[in-house]
Design goal:
This protein is mainly alpha-helical. It has one domain. Helices cover about 80% and strands about 0% of the residues. The relative contact order is 0.14.
């Protein structure tokens, strides 16, 4: 059962990361940001993904 749970978690995390990238793309398309600000937003999204991964990697599914 552990391998199945790991696969489900991997798929869920990939969906979350993809959604976060889409959030960045939406911000990029809706706001006039210079390259520095775009980079800052992308950095925030990346850091959020990293922290979320650290927090959830050992969490059990409900």
């Amino acid at each position: 059962m552990g391998l199945l749970e790991d696969k489900i978690k991997q798929d869920l995390m990939q969906n979350i990361f993809t959604s976060n990238l889409k959030t960045f793309e939406t911000i990029d398309s809706k706001f006039k940001l210079n390259n520095e600000d775009k980079s800052k937003v992308l950095d925030l999204v990346s850091k959020f993904n990293e922290e979320l991964n650290k927090l959830l990697k050992n969490a059990k599914l409900s």
